[in-house]
Amino acid sequence: MVTDPHELFRQWMSEAEAAESSDPNAMALATADAAGRPSVRMVLLKGHDARGFVFYTNLDSRKGGELAANGHAALLFHWKSLRRQVRIEGPIEPVASDEADAYFATRSRDSQLGAWTSEQSRPLESRALFEARYEAMRDRFDGADVPRPPRWSGFRVRPERIEFWTDRAHRLHERRLFTATDDGWSEGLLYP
User: Fold this and answer.
1) Catalytic residue check, 171
2) pTM above threshold 0.90
3) To bridge 192 with a disulfide, which of 100, 132, 161, 173 should be the other Cys (CB 3.0-4.6 Å)?
């Protein structure tokens, strides 16, 4: 039995990539503002290692503001076809600029231009305005590489708790909880 939660996550993600037809790396990201009011949305996992779980966003977005005000987040992966989910909780940290630049360079040109175009989470007067802004960005960067916008970067959730949930008959589910300690990880079970 695997006792390292990062290795177990890698195994489960690999199985999800084989089984899920669309976005096996989709995860719900829960944040809270300074007053503790929660908010949740779907984002995509873009990196995972022993340091944590990485996603990218517009720093001026609602989630960016909430992460700046309250430096903790929770993630949830739900793979319905596998009847599994993984819950992750912990503090966040910004990724290094060179890491954000490297990831941004792998995005499609249209996605790169979209990052410059969008004022994510802000009110939008009309779709036509957004499309005009996009065309202006296409013209601005015509024939040139698109650099990462200064307001766009990534965060890493450094897990303090990772729970692996497996669906079982009659709601007798299995819940394995890994909790970070000074010496690594402790593991226990939770009642379903």
Assistant:
1) yes
2) yes
3) 173
